[in-house]
């Protein structure tokens, strides 16, 4: 699959196999996606936090996204057009350009980004969800950001929590069972421990 993803044929005009190996091609694709993820993550952290710190940007741009207090999957894409341009379009373009990925790899990458963003906003902790296993930045992590008392934390999106840890905006969480409603809920750990005292 990796040669086709990169856009290479599996045979040359002479009928011989190409010089690149599967391992080399897959490693190249993995590195390109990793670079694009890191660039997009850094870009989105800076702009997301900036929109929370700047009253004008929050009030007129980012508050559209935070009107949704209850988690809603397509709330990931419910934002002001300026925010969509700055965070998603420009961040994605920078990740694409910095990584040097092919158009085929970019289709896979942008699909991954969209599915991950929708999953992060769905508000559901589903057993066996691969995103919850692969990333610390998951549905519960982002739910904490959307809770009213902790919207000043967990700005990182969509993949890693690195920038929150580096800049002191990381809020750990616990998953609790809400037996009355039959669901699992994410609770900020700091508020969880103080509420129990």
From TrEMBL:
Q: What is its main location?
A: endoplasmic reticulum
Q: Its domain of life?
A: Eukaryota
Substrates-to-products reaction catalysed: a long-chain fatty aldehyde + 2 NADPH + O2 + H(+) = a long-chain alkane + formate + 2 NADP(+) + H2O
Q: Does the keyword Mitochondrion apply?
A: no
From the Swiss-Prot or TrEMBL record, what is one GO molecular function term?
aldehyde oxygenase (deformylating) activity
Any idea of its EC number? Answer: 4.1.99.5
Q: Which Pfam families match?
A: FA_hydroxylase
The record describes its membrane topology as:
Multi-pass membrane protein
Q: Which family does it belong to?
A: Belongs to the sterol desaturase family.
Provide the protein name. Answer: aldehyde oxygenase (deformylating)
